[in-house]
Amino acid sequence: MSKSMTLEDHFTRLHPVRPEHEAARLLWQERLGPELSAREDERKAVINRAVMHTVATAAFITALVFAAIIAFGFQTIFPFGIFAGIVATFIACAAVWMPVFTMKSQTKQLVVGAACEPFGFTYQTLHQDFSGVSSLRSLGSWVNANRSVVFSKTDDAPTPAFDRLKAVGLMPTYDSRKFEDLIEGVRADAAFTMVECKLTQQQGSGKNRRTVTKFQGLLLNIEYPDRFLGRTLLARDGWWSWGRKNGMQEVQLVSKELEDAFTVYSTDQVEARTLLTPDRMERLIALERHFKGSKLRGVFEEGHLTIALEAKDQFEAGSIFKPLMDPARYIETLTEIGLICDLIDGFLTREWYKDKI
């Protein structure tokens, strides 16, 4: 979208039009826009300080490396001396970029939180608070005060989605997990939680040891007013195989296109086909398409619909290196939240919900 587009231009492009959009427009005009505008000078100053410090530090360490090369010869210094210089620059500059990270986190909280508000939802970044960290000394003090957090490999799961997906074999093995961007609320009389999750695992040994991302994406849990009669699992075709376990059988979907795209197993064939109608499956595909995701999978069990979607970082509310007043930050988040609403509405406002299966 062009930077010259006005707020009204952005809202005109929002589709579909939702009743919450009018409140969202007023919220931007009366509160969010002025707040972001007031922070713009601070954003520039924080980034300039970090850049200037980094440039000066890099120049100083580069001079030291060249002096070492002149004194001891290139063959002696290369490659370990140059690598050491890069590492030293990174360590020396890490703390001065903390205020930039803090401002990025605060901007996300403002923008995404404001976008959630007209829908009656709440948002938390789940980021650590690095306020006051701007030097190596203050960073050291923060680490000492938060040692249990820094050295922990596991965050508490802020949604039941993780444990439910793990219990049915829809999450990979991992060594550590991290969560951020928690959205909670009620839609169509159903409580839901959604969070971003990243699972990592150490592979190899010695010099070949590396950290591998096993999963990065969104976890969504929707609480239904009634319990399901059976258990139904679905996943994108081609990467996952459940097999005929625990009385589950493969479900034949009514659409050949969906049949080729998804693998579905259930303990109740009738309920599974009632749940996974073509229009509802299209809601899932639309969510996947917008978030540029893959390997969508989920489980219907007891009173919950739980979904995992592998995707890169979402709900970022734009770059901290761009002006804060760009309405595109807000509009993109409203669009993402709208897709979640579409998915919940599609599963909870149909005849099967009203009449009870």
Automatic annotation (TrEMBL):
InterPro entries: DUF3137 (IPR021484). The chain crosses the membrane at residues 50-74, 80-100. Keywords: Membrane, Transmembrane, Transmembrane helix. Pfam families: DUF3137. This is DUF3137 domain-containing protein. It comes from Henriciella algicola.
